[in-house]
Amino acid sequence: MLFSLSQSIGRRAALGGTFGGTLGAAVLACDSVRAQPAGDAVPSGGPAPTVGSGLQPRIDVHAHFLPAGYRAAAIAAGHEHPDGTPGLPRWDVGFALDMMDTLNIRTAMLSISSPGVHFGDDGAARKLAREVNEEAARAAHDHPGRFGLFAALPLPDVDGAIEEATYALDVLGADGVGVETNHHGIYMGDPRFDPLFAELNRRRAVVFMHPTSPTCPCCQTLSLGYPRPMIEFMFETTRAVTNLLLTGTMDRFPDTRLIVPHAGAAMPVLADRIAGLSPFLNLPHPVQPDRFFANLRRLYYDLAGFPLPRLAPVLMEIADPAHVLYGSDWPFTPLPIVTQCARDLEGTPVFDDALRRRILHDNALGLFPRLRA
């Protein structure tokens, strides 16, 4: 099925049974590469393709960074193998620029990935958030046009988060803020986060949401011993988006522009089920199916990970085509996989050429007009 900018896309067609096959098929779509363990000695690596790789220019809204101070703090807090992964990948500005040139990424929006910056102490989290945000701002200043910033916030410390968001947006010129699906077990959509969302809504801020591990001792068994980004992150994202919708957060703060990662995770497949059951839950904020799908269409979605061949077509049943964006998820996703999946996006018949160009580059200009210069 070919999707184009001019096409009116129905939201209910052919949803059943898709997500169950996505992982295996996506691995086959990128089957010329295999992940290498992430660590200091083995970065998100493998042999680099030729510079440019014949790929179209792109803006990467899902790019992580790990400055030295953050790496040290994460390891000291027991996150040497975050979320059950092999380790923290290598990152520095020069290494990132080499990767970006390889994939023809003009600008990468830097964000801190899971487990975030709050390791149990509010004061330490505020200090670490400030440190990493200023580090990213220096990279953006030193390399004009190449980097942007989704500022790290010390959640669940809401007062500290509002203070840091204000500093990052007003002083550092951040392009938005980054949050996790849950912060120490408090999910996006929880009313305790409403003061932060009110401030972000007032600013019409871009909010990039990233999955993290569930927070409870027994929750770690949900991943069945596999790295949690492989399976559980998809459901963690779906959980958070569902909560944002069913608590009325999206309706109360309609000017907040939220980016959902990984092609919407499982939400494109579960949307009809959630929308169909919601009217019978006696929710404090009743959710009708039409409004539910209107809010889904208002969200932004990146295509990091493995959106092809099956998940992206289902995403297009619920998403506004002008709100679909490119993401690499590097360096936590190794470069060979990122490269092959980028090639898959270039060649897929799912998108026509005009929409492909919008997804890779032009749609992001609507969120970040400074990049038009």
Question: What keyword list fits this structure?
Answer:
13 helices, eight-stranded parallel beta sheet, globular, TIM Barrel, 373 residues
Strands in their spatial order, largest beta sheet = 1-2-3-4-7-8-9-10
Within CATH, the superfamily carries the name Metal-dependent hydrolases
Flag low-confidence runs: 5-44, 46-51
CATH architecture: Alpha-Beta Barrel
**Terminal-residue CA separation:** 35 Å
Strand content: 5-15%
Content-based structural category = alpha/beta
Sheet bearing the most strands, described?
A: 8 strands, parallel
From the 3D structure, determine the CATH topology: TIM Barrel
Q: What is the ordering of alpha helices and beta strands?
A: HEHHEHEHEEEHEHHEHHEHEHH
Question: Mean pLDDT, nearest integer?
Answer: 88
Strand count: 10
Number of helices: 13
Shape: globular
Q: How many separate domains make up the residues?
A: 1
- Cα-atom Rg, whole angstroms? 19 Å
Helical proportion, percent range: 25-40%
What's the level 1 CATH class? Alpha Beta
Overview in brief:
With 373 residues, this protein is of the alpha/beta class. It has helices at 19-29, 68-76, 93-102, 122-142, 158-172, 194-203, 232-246, 249-252, 267-277, 289-298, 311-315, 335-347, 353-367, and strands at residues 58-64, 105-111, 147-152, 176-180, 182-183, 186-187, 206-210, 257-260, 300-302, 324-325.
